[in-house]
Specification:
- This protein has 241 residues and is an alpha+beta fold.
- It has two domains: 1-30; 34-240, Muramoyl-pentapeptide Carboxypeptidase, domain 2 (2-Layer Sandwich), CATH 3.30.1380.10.
- The chain contains seven helices and 13 strands.
- A hairpin with a 4-residue loop joins strand 1 (36-39) and strand 2.
- Helix 3 (77-93) crosses helix 4.
- The radius of gyration is 19 Å and the shape is globular.
Length: 241
């Protein structure tokens, strides 16, 4: 009996060591050189991916499991510099807002769980910023992978907490700032995926009007299941120019 219990502890220890070992690459990773995106966001891979920070002054990554164990916080080097510069600019534009990144790409590209794209380092998911009574609320940002279970109504209000709603102003400012930074780094926004019935709320903001003026493409139709899961976050595909 004791031997059987001891075996279980040994197995548990080996599993934990396995998790630690796979997570070591994030601690040891050094961003250098130039990345290469091969193929498309739907059928591609990534060479020499750049690892985004897990936490910075005004942004963080949403899940330690996704970051350290699934290796899903890698992007093309041009995307890396685009986001770093954009968030530095957002510190000035929206100093009272903290943003959260969600899945990017695997270290070597290819398929990642529950996503059809994100295969070549040119796709990034961004958590929608949220406010309650005009102040940012980050309580719901701490759910990690369970964040996908959050549902927002057509006005951007959280179903389980109607006082919490999407901060469309901060969201639209972030998109414009990311677009500016992308063009300085040899990229452009190819498309944005957001739940279709939330687009009008985004366009209603001042920065949202600029998104429309620039012709930044936000998808107009989505398959029902894809549309349903893009209310708690928005997706950006970049392309090199």
């Amino acid at each position: 009996m004791k031997f059987r219990i001891r075996k279980r502890y040994i197995l548990l220890l080996l599993i934990l060591l396995g998790f630690v070992f796979t997570g070591f690459q994030e601690f040891r990773h050094i961003n250098s050189g130039v990345s290469r995106s091969i193929g498309s966001v739907r059928n591609g891979r990534l060479e020499n991916g750049y690892l985004l920070p897990y936490k910075a002054r005004n942004f963080d990554y949403f899940s330690p499991i996704s970051y350290y164990l699934l290796d899903n916080a890698y992007v093309h080097s041009k995307v890396y510099y685009t986001l770093i510069q954009a968030f530095e600019e957002l510190e000035q534009k929206t100093p009272d807002r903290v943003y959260s990144l969600m899945e990017c790409s695997h270290r070597n590209g290819g398929r990642i769980p529950i996503h059809r794209t994100h295969m070549n380092g040119l796709s990034v998911d961004f958590m929608v910023p949220k406010v309650r009574n005009g102040q940012q609320i980050r309580l719901w940002d701490k759910l990690g992978i369970w964040h996908y279970a959050l549902d927002f109504d057509p006005d951007g209000r959280l179903w389980i907490d109607k006082k919490t709603k999407i901060d469309f102003d901060a969201m639209s400012k972030a998109i414009i700032t990311i677009d500016d930074a992308s063009r300085k780094n040899g990229l452009k926004i190819r498309k944005i995926i957001l739940k279709v019935n939330l687009k009008d709320n985004l366009y209603a903001t001042q920065a949202g009007q600029e998104i429309r003026r620039r012709g930044i493409y936000i998808v107009k139709r989505l398959a029902e299941i894809v549309d349903r899961v893009h209310d708690d976050h928005f997706h950006i595909d970049f392309e090199e120019i």
